[in-house]
Amino acid sequence: MILVTGATGRVGRDVVSGLHALGCQVVGMARNPATAHSVLPGFAHRIANYDDPEALQQAFTGIDKLVFIASDGDANSVARHHAKIIKAAAATSVPHIIFTSIIDCDASSPFYFAPVYRESERWLLGSAIDCTILRCGLYSDFIVENWVKPAEITGEMILPTGAGRVAPISRKDLAAAIAAVAAGPRRANKAFIITGQHALSFAEIASLYETINARPMRYRPCSNEDYRRLIAPQLQAPWPQAFCSLGTAIAEGRWQSASQDFKNITSRGPESFGEFLIRTKCR
Ligand SMILES: NC(=O)c1ccc[n+]([C@@H]2O[C@H](COP(=O)([O-])OP(=O)(O)OC[C@H]3O[C@@H](n4cnc5c(N)ncnc54)[C@H](OP(=O)(O)O)[C@@H]3O)[C@@H](O)[C@H]2O)c1
Prior knowledge:
By secondary structure, this protein is an alpha/beta fold. Helix content is 45%, strand content 17%. The protein has helices spanning 10-21, 33-39, 53-60, 75-91, 114-126, 140-148, 171-183, 202-213, 224-231, 239-251, 261-266, 273-280; strands spanning 2-4, 26-30, 44-47, 65-68, 96-102, 130-136, 156-159, 165-166, 190-194, 200-201, 218-221. It has a 7-stranded parallel β-sheet with strand order 3-2-1-4-5-6-9, sandwiched between helices. Strands 7-11 form a two-stranded parallel ribbon. The radius of gyration is 19 Å and the shape is globular. It starts with a strand and ends with a helix.
């Protein structure tokens, strides 16, 4: 029995259906019964909030593998959620956890979320539980939602990412990789890098968008201060800090890894960023 946290989320729901398609017994964990019914129709689910240790322990009882999809929000809440999930998994003797980390969790990284992912990996490796860590690159969906779409009006993507490159992976492909790892043999204390196959500059990303949509788009690098001024009126804390520090980390080359692990895990190549733009019609 495999339990998936964040199962009503965009990655989690595809992991649940992917595991089902692979013939696994799967149960989705959700915090809200109504959301579970509407997002996971026909799938078994268990209800628990990450802030409720007792409910987490009940949800994890009898589980053979836990697909632990990272939480989101401010870094303190994410750390609290992750600590409670790992503690509940240890208390219920879950044999194996598959955790979605990020490729940028080095101690020297300026990225706002780097410390919480680094700590979470440390807690997992220090627990008695076998764990497999999937260090994920930037989602193609994230780039389009947060950086490409908002730039459509002006045709100018203004970011503090310098000459940095990224190898985007779609949420759908990430879910396929997670399901394949969770359905496969236990890979104790092993880490995979889940990214696209090619690292793109932001000028290349803008150019792909321009070609596929026949709409003007160009990339203009800016300073971190200018970017913060641009986004601060539209975003609540911690997002201006998270986005600015992500830009700096990208400019420093911390998100440019392009790994073959996705292909090795799934026996197919990941969707390219251009293919993602066509499939989603840039939504
Ligand atoms: N690499 C990247 O580019 C990138 C970008 C963005 C996010 N991420 C990470 O990837 C993760 C998955 O992405 P996603 O798009 O699937 O996120 P998502 O659609 O926002 O889904 C988040 C899931 O977490 C659940 N959740 C949130 N707080 C909870 C709580 N206190 N207790 C129980 N469940 C809770 C949500 O439940 P509800 O449905 O009830 O809200 C939902 O199922 C994110 O959480 C974040 O850590 C990575």
